[in-house]
Structures are given as structure tokens and as C-alpha cells.
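Hey, can you fold this?
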Amino acid sequence: MVATYEQGDDVLVHHPAEILLVVEVLSPSNKGQDRVYKNHLHSVARIPWYLLVEVDEDNERPTLVLQRLGPGHYNEVARAACGQMLKLPDPFGELDPGDLLKRRP
């Protein structure tokens, strides 16, 4: 279940069947839990796409790993490092992991 804020203070709650893609930033201290347990929870909820953001601890540069739900588990379908474009499922377009490092003004 996802809760998002709409305009004002209203909270909109989404059922897992309405979610197309979930994004998980892997925590260096919880990689096992993020990769196994949360992956399992998302697959049980039947969320079709799973995007992992892996951050290299040495150079702090992200890699994106796109996975698609198969029979009972996710399978990797694409991977992109900084400077490479990752095509995401419609309607999300493309993303270069390096864009995650850009600071907003």
C-alpha cells in the first residue's frame, strides 16, 4: 500500500494492484533485507516492475537494476550505470542513473 499527498493535506491511499513500479534504494546496512525480504513482499503484492537503486560504496555512484515480475519472483531485464540510459516501462520513459546525483537549485 502506498500513501501519497495530493494537493493540500489530503492523503491518497493506493492498493498494490494499482502500482506499476516500485523503487527501492538499497541501504548498505540492509542490502540483504532489501534484496530478499522486500523483493518477496513486492512479488506477493504482484507489482509488475521493481527498480533497484544500488549505490557503489567506493565511488557513491548509482546503478539501476530493472526487474520484471515472473512466475513468483522478479527477473532482471536491464541494468544501467551512470552515463547509460535505462528504458523504463511505459509511461516512465528513460533515466540515466547519473541524473540522480544532480542537485536541484
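Oh, and this one too while you're at it.
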Amino acid sequence: MKKVDLHIHSMYSDGTYTVNEIIERAKENQVELISICDHNCIEAYDELENKKLDVKILPGVEIDSVDDYIDFHILGYNFDIHDQQFKKFIEENNSRLELVNVKLLEKVIRDHPALSLQEYQNFSYDRKKGGWKLLHYFANKGICETIWDGFEIYARYHHSYAEANFPSIDEVCDQIHKANGKAILAHPGKTIPYHTLNEFKTYLERLLEHPFDGVECYYSSHSEKITNICLGFCHKKKRMITCGSDCHGEFEKTKMDQLNISGDFLQLKDFI
């Protein structure tokens, strides 16, 4: 099997590429199987429906959940895109995601009274530039020089996405399964807090007690040691093995296909 990239973001969330641009870049890089996994959003698949494609696209989404006051991302794959209950669940989670930004804005307004919630709500930006609305609003108002500088504002105000009322890991997995999809733990090496490899192993083993179907073992920022630990657990527990660049187009440095992973290295028997 040719190359695979199952974690790509479009301009429907915080990426810079249109759906067509993602498909064209996949073809240029000889990536045979892809998945667009926007944050709490599956609008890309409305655009793709009934469209003749030269690349195989697996329905996907990246959903926020909270466990131990940590925002864990869960990748849902191959679900029924017409499942209304699942669509509603995703939309509600997207609203929770935006509420995190609104709460940060309320904090910042105390120090910058020229900002206003009403102005923010009416604000629009070029989605092709990536990122999200609040970053662009801060840059537009001169609170930060660039949208990338806006990340520092979250840290300065000790504002975390874990503060949102995101559902539990079990609830997210359950909703994905009810929509006939598979639930995959996204980039554990990026999310799990650890100082030593043994700490990482212990935490990952605890996480995999939840009803995950697999792990995103191959990921752009995973070290070889982290990747091998993830692979070891998946082989031992017979879980699915996926890969993803987490490409956001020009918004971040990761590029589609930078992992150069063939489907032969993955466990995707339920997808292909």
C-alpha cells in the first residue's frame, strides 16, 4: 500500500488549505489514503459528498475531551457522516471550544478596555490564514503583533482548554462508536505529561484502559522511543495503529506526508 496521512486540518477549523488543495497536495505527494480531521467539525465532508475523488478519504474528526484536567484529543474515523446524534455532539463540543476563547477574551478585556465581546462576535477574518478567530482578533486590535504571538496570551492569563466543560474520554469514545466509527488516541507523546519514558509508559497504559480502538503511534513530533512504546502497546493489546502529520497548511510547520509512512506499517484492517 502507498503512503498514508490520517491527520490533516482544513480551513474549516484552523488549517490554511481548502479541501481541494488538500486533495491536490495528497496527489502530488503520492499519498493514497488521507483523513481530514478538523477540530470538532466535519463540514469538510459536506463538501466532499458525491464528489468524484482521485484520493481515498477516510471520514475523520478530532474531538476534545478532558481527563485528569488535561485536554486529550481523540480522533474519530470511518463514522457515519449522516448520523444526526453524532453531528449534534460534535457541534456542541465546538461550541464548548469557542467558549474557552470567549472566557479568555473576558479576562483580557479587563486590561484592554478597547476590546469588546460584541465587536469580537461581529469580527470576521480570512480563513485561508489559518488559526482561529480570537488569534486574528487580538492581532487586528494590536494586542499581539502576529496571530502566532497570540498563543502567549493564553499562557500569560493561565488559560487552558482543560477549563472547558469537554466530555470525558469514555463519552467521546462512546459517541464515536455509536456512529459506527473507531476511536483513536491522538498524539500521546504530545499530550501525556511525563519526564521519563517509564512515566510515559505508565500513563499510556492507564489511558488505554479507556475504550480506544487504537493509537496514533506515528506522529510528526514523536521521538523514535515514544513511537516504539506506542507500537508495543498496540501490538500487545491488538489495537489499531495509525499515523498523522497534523498538517495545518501554512499555519504550522508540519507538512503532509512528512512522516513518509506506508500503510504496510499500520494496522488499518477495519478501514481498508
